Amino acid sequence: MDNASYHSVVVDKVPTTGSKKIDILGWLEARGIPHNPRQTRAELLCLVNAIKPRTKTFELDSIAQGRGHSVVRLPSYHCHYNPIELIWSQVKGAVAKRNTTFKMADIEVLMNEELDRVTAMEWEKCVQHAEKIQEEHYRRDIAIDSVMESIVINLQDDSSDSLSDESEEDDIF
C-alpha cells in the first residue's frame, strides 16, 4: 500500500506542537494522565511525549489485522513498486479515449466498464513488472553499498604530514 493520506489515518492521533491546548488536555484526560489545566502547552506536551506510543497504528492496518492480513507499505515516492498504478494508468487512458461527453455520470460509467475489462492476466503482468523493478533496485542498492563501504575518508589531521609539507615549502622559497 502506498502512503496516501487516506491510507495513513492514525487510530489514536497524538497531540503535536500544532495542537490546541484544549485538545492536548482532552488527550491527557482520556488516558487518565494527571495534569494541571493551568500548565502551559509546552508543559502539557512534555507529558504527552513521555507517554505517547513510539509507533503509529493506522486504521487500515487494524482493519487488515482483524481479518488476518498484514499491510506492507511502500517506501515514499516509489509508486512504481505498486502494480495497481499500472492498472490505473491503463484504465484512465482507456476512459480518456472513450470520453466524448465530459460529463461525470458518463465518466463513471466508462470507468466501471474499463475496470471490468481488466483481466487476471493483465494484473499478473503488472505484478511481475513491479516485482522486476523492485528486484533491480535491490540489486543496484547492494552494488552501491558494497562500493561505498570500501571508501574511507580520514577526517583527522595527521600532524606529521602537515609538518613535512611545511618544511618542503620552506625549502622551495
Could you characterize what this model shows?
By secondary structure, the protein is mainly α. It contains seven helices and no strands. The chain has two domains: 73 residues, no CATH class; 74 residues, no CATH class. It is flat, with a radius of gyration of 28 Å. The mean pLDDT is 89.
SSE blueprint and pairings:
Layout: H1 21-30, H2 41-51, H3 59-66, H4 83-98, H5 104-117, H6 120-149, H7 159-172
Helix pairs in contact: 1-2, 4-5, 4-6
Structural class: mainly alpha
Give the integer mean of the pLDDT values: 89
What is the helix/strand order? HHHHHHH
First-last Cα distance: 68 Å
SS strand fraction: under 5%
Number of helices: 7
Helix-residue proportion: 55-70%
Rg of Cα set: 28 Å
- The shape, in one word, is flat
How many domains is the backbone divided into? Answer: 2
Largest sheet: none
Number of strands: 0
The stretches of 5 or more residues where confidence is low (pLDDT under 50) are none
